[in-house]
Design a protein that fits this description.
Residues 1-33 are annotated as: Disordered. Residues 1-20 have a biased composition (Low complexity). This protein is of the alpha+beta class. It has a domain at 29-89: Roll (Nuclear Transport Factor 2, Chain: A), CATH 3.10.450. It has 1 helix and 3 strands. It has one helix at 37-54; strands spanning 29-32, 61-74, 78-89. Strands 1-2-3 form a 3-stranded antiparallel β-sheet. β2 (61-74) and β3 form a beta hairpin. The protein is elongated and about 40 Å long.
Length: 93
């Protein structure tokens, strides 16, 4: 995958897909309360990435609510988070 130039707009991602609850290696996803700190931290990282992809001078995305959060343990690598977020465009008011 080529590295984007500075100031270049990234390519638009495809449509969102539903992610499976369990991994192929037999690990299970654990439901987390949306107020759980690691879920909120993962949501903040996701919002930062979405701001980079979809944001612009006339668009300011902000996290409104974490509706649902699940964490899957990935062996010795760490955790994978599945999040359902509600975003708000604060500049579109």
């Amino acid at each position: 995958r080529p590295v984007p130039r500075l100031g270049a707009r990234p390519a638009r991602p495809g449509p969102a897909r539903a992610l499976p609850a369990g991994g192929g290696s037999g690990s299970r996803a654990m439901e987390l309360p949306p107020s759980h700190f690691p879920a909120a931290r993962a949501a903040a990282v996701a919002v930062g990435y979405l701001r980079y992809l979809r944001g612009g001078p006339g668009r300011g995305l902000e996290l409104r609510e974490v509706r649902r959060a699940r964490r899957q343990d990935i062996g010795d690598a760490g955790h994978k988070y599945y999040l359902e977020l509600e975003l708000e465009d604060v500049l579109d008011k």
